[in-house]
């Protein structure tokens, strides 16, 4: 430029950026950051209320299957011939103990004493009967086998050392189970326990994050 505005020498005046332009830049950057945070928050809310990625949710279902276990073997029970039974009558019906003892003998049991019940039980058994014996007889299965012949009996143990079992007939005794019913009950006892069901329950997996 010429005239009085002519610049001479190699030194130029420093040109300062107007301050209002700095403010505009800062405001713009802040706006971009705020919009980014708002968008990220919106996506998080959508993810919470929609359950996340649908494809991941569908694929996240799995079948929780228990490990199959082998059937438990049934406990071995004694044969009727191995069980010695003393038959006692605690009712007012005469001859009941002998008739019951004869029937048990027909079914293979070994019969011991037959007669009236001791005072502790005489006319004091309201149910079908009482099975009385040593704890070993109860644990060994003698009570269980005799119970198939007369359901509803009460089982008690005492301090005897011998293996025989007392069958004390009570007021509600009418008859033993039929041979077919007793056999069916015995068969059910000697069958192995069924294995647990292999059905699987569907459980959705939860998405972490």
From TrEMBL:
Pfam families to which the protein is assigned, alphabetical: LytR_C
Gene3D superfamilies: 3.30.70.2390
Ranges for domain LytR/CpsA/Psr regulator C-terminal: 83-173
Biased composition regions of type Polar residues, renumbered to the chain: 199-209
TM segment ranges: 24-43
Entry keywords, A to Z: Membrane, Transmembrane, Transmembrane helix
InterPro entries: LytR/CpsA/Psr_C
Region (Disordered): 56-76, 189-209
Domain of life: Bacteria
Protein name as catalogued: LytR C-terminal domain-containing protein
Source organism per UniProt: Streptomyces cyaneofuscatus
